[in-house]
Write a structure and sequence with these properties.
Strand order of the largest sheet: 2-3-1-4
Number of helices: 3
Order of helices and strands: EHEEHEH
Low-confidence stretches: none
Number of strands: 4
Radius of gyration: 14 Å
């Protein structure tokens, strides 16, 4: 069976944190590619107050088999008390690209 490719999303407080997490996930083969999207504005309730912060969005390409390791590493590296981690299954796409994602986290 072909391994399920997934997209994981997380936000970071600044570029330095986002880069450090992205580099760790890719170098440790927990992700094949991590996009860092700047200019994200997040509005949410935390500690009973409405918050509005600038953040960096991480778009993490990996496989379902690497998710537990990715979550553990993200939690260890992330400065937030409760790091965002939302996972979306990939229903299809360029099969050569999806195979590249699988290969990048295998081994």
């Amino acid at each position: 069976m072909t391994e399920q490719v997934i997209i994981a999303l997380s936000t970071c407080p600044d570029e330095a944190v986002a880069r450090r997490i992205a580099e760790a996930l890719v170098s440790e083969r927990l992700a094949t590619c991590v996009n860092r999207v700047t200019g994200v504005a997040s509005t949410y309730f935390w500690d009973g107050r409405l918050q509005d912060d600038a953040e960096i969005l991480l778009i993490i390409k990996t496989t379902a088999a690497r998710l537990a390791g990715l979550e553990a590493r993200l939690t260890a590296l992330h400065p937030y008390e409760l790091p965002e981690l939302v996972v979306l299954p990939v229903a299809g796409g360029n099969e050569r690209y999806l195979q590249w994602v699988r290969t990048g986290v295998s081994g």
